[in-house]
Amino acid sequence: MRDRIKLGSVDLIYLDPPFNSNREYNAIYKDETGRPLPDQIEAFCDLWTLDEQRERAIRNMPVLLREAGIDDDVAEFWKLWMNALRNTQPRLLAYLSYMVERLIRMRPILKPTGSIYLHCDPTASHYIKVMMDAIFGHTNFRNEIIWGYKTGGVSKRYFGKKHDTILFYTRSGEYTFNTQKERTYNRDDKPYRFKGVTEYQDEQGRWYTMATMRDIWEINAIGRTSKERMGYATQKPLALLNRIITASSNEGDVVLDPFCGCATTLEAAHRLNRQWIGIDIAIHAIKRVAKMRLSDRLQLVEGVNFSIEGVPRSLEGAKDLWKRDKYHFQKWAVEEADGFVTTKRTADGGIDGRLYFAISGDRDLQSMAIEVKGGRNVSIYDLRALSGVLDNDAAVMAGLIVMEPLGTTRERNFHRFMAGAGDLDVMGVKYPRMQMLTVDDILDGKRFRTPRVVGRGDGQQNLPFPSP
Fold this sequence. Notes:
CATH topology of the largest domain: Rossmann fold
CATH architecture of the largest domain: 3-Layer(aba) Sandwich
Radius of gyration: 26 Å
Structural class: alpha/beta
Largest sheet: 7 strands, mixed
CATH class of the largest domain: Alpha Beta
Strand content: 15-25%
Helix content: 25-40%
Number of strands: 19
Shape: globular
Strand order of the largest sheet: 10-5-6-4-1-11-12
């Protein structure tokens, strides 16, 4: 948002960020048999800790608020509030600081006539409203929308939790709003014939009138068998986004979803003839959206109808990402090789991701442990450490990703060492237990040679890795 979106260029922001639900959402990553991946992968993790990075962000919060033009009194209030939460609810404090950093960036990119809808649930909605009041102004608060739905189980210990909260703010007092109507059914299914009121009958013969829409919305959640479903546990229905986009934007306007996930917002915006921008931190999510949502469902062509930015497409781009953010370079390299970034590390701390595959006859998925080295000083000691994973970890294979070729002599030594790890024999087909790819190999479409990879889902076969 800071580097690529112009100030005052967006008409509508809808965001459905993590809810501070203290849950992990990895269900999207299952293979065709429905088996979940056997490890904790970094897909969508709504777990929060008050680590050193969050503490730095919290200390810097008053500065960010003042730089954003927010009153000093509000900044002082935040300092007191943050100190109180640090001692009582540190996980909530970590979550709120994360959200404030991002919401501050969203305000200046909204047009003066723009609107923002923040989707949350009762876990932290009351705290988030205080944040939104501070950043967007209490006088610009328009609605607390309650989205009610009937789905899932209920509890015998409390009332069923069957609603989310959507906070609607505007950038100023002048904003786009298109009034919408909803059906109000007559209680006894008979026409009332009130003067000046038009009544209608639906397909079942029930009588209803059309009234201005309230702030309580009853829209069905996505069912398990719905054609809309893309495997995201928190996926929202198109009908919900259609209503928001229709109300607070016009055709040709720009709609932004900075936590776009499975891109329901993008599809709704496209079908309603809006321009759209989606942002997501997970490359797997971006690839899935481009394939399933944009290409398959909307028949859009990358490079013609939409573009993907911020993902390296060349060795130079990969090097630039390495210089700017080594951790995100590692994430990119793992996911570009069809692996999954992992938050569960082995004893040596050297595993950056895993690539999963199924072996016929095995109930559980097997994995290749992946390590990424972006610097030039890759040595045989790194390879020995990775080899140790095969002795001390559940992985049956190990892969090394390096930035550039190692040179003739060193590469020969690396391949000789890796050959000593032997092969994995699957139904007579042998796969080297240790393998290596360069960034150029990956960008050229080469992949680690394994049995069928879980999560690719595009019919592509594994291409051979480079020969020594």
